Amino acid sequence: MGMLDGKVAVVTGSGGGIGREIALHMAQAGAKVIINDIGASLTGEGASATPAQQTKQIIEQRGGRAEINTDSVSSWESAGKIVQSALDHFGRIDIVVNNAGILRDQIFHRMTPEEWDAVIDVHLNGSFYVSRHAATHFRKQEGGSYVHITSTSGLIGNFGQANYSAAKLGICALSKSIALDMKRYNVRSNCLAPFAWSRMTSSIPAETPEQKARVEKIMRMGPEKNAPLAVFLASDAAKDVTGQIFGPRMNELFLFSQNRPIRGIHAAEGWTPESIAEHALPALKSFFVPMERSGEVFSWDPL
């Protein structure tokens, strides 16, 4: 008996990397899998069914069941076809893994509206579209699980990724809203912030000695290290886990904090700009969140 026996999973962007490993592990755990991938480049150009076919071949060689869908997550209509493919092939849908993604990295003052829209459309809009189509079926059957792939670029910060960071942090808010709205239907929604060397991290600069050292650390973390947590979150063993953000890093597992007040001060007479500068700023400044990137927060070697 596998942890996902009898369940049907849709894994977007599962033609390679982290998505492929999640699809493989879910199939190994007993799920029937819809492998969704348009086969585009890292920046979203082109299309090919080959990556999805390769994932399907591996699953079937290992005795699992899978079907391919090559529709894009980035429009409402095509996202509906992704969910419908699960119903057409396997008669139901129990799990959605929102993993599909592209990159259009650019320093903020040079970022174009096209670079912004392209990334938001796939990551944030795509997660909403696929999740919303699945929600109709989750509600009817009173059960289902979402696993959304976020990133420390959004949770903590990174250079040259305003579009990606905004989308990935937005996905966390989307997940929390789904968890709150659909709890009454036994539907769970969680986020996973992966650490791995994959196509999505291959664009990290490696020019300075510090950058090269950071990339070398990431390259030691294979995409397969993220799959066990995704399988668990999708399973009935996680029936009490919803609205959370997790991060697997090699053999470490992290639970991320979510925004809460960290310091408060009160003035009986109210505040003026001057009193804020004189009294509030000194009281609050030592609690400011540092200007750090993910690599600076996770500065130790992965265990």
UniProtKB/TrEMBL annotation:
InterPro entries registered for this protein in UniProt: KR_dom, NAD(P)-bd_dom_sf, Peroxisomal_Beta-Oxidation, Sc_DH/Rdtase_CS, SDR_fam
SUPFAM superfamilies: NAD(P)-binding Rossmann-fold domains (SSF51735)
Domain Ketoreductase: residue ranges: 7-203
SMART domains: PKS_KR (SM00822)
Gene3D superfamilies cross-referenced by the UniProt entry: NAD(P)-binding Rossmann-like Domain (3.40.50.720)
PROSITE patterns the UniProt entry points to: ADH_SHORT (PS00061)
Family: Belongs to the short-chain dehydrogenases/reductases (SDR) family.
Name by which UniProt lists this protein: SDR family oxidoreductase
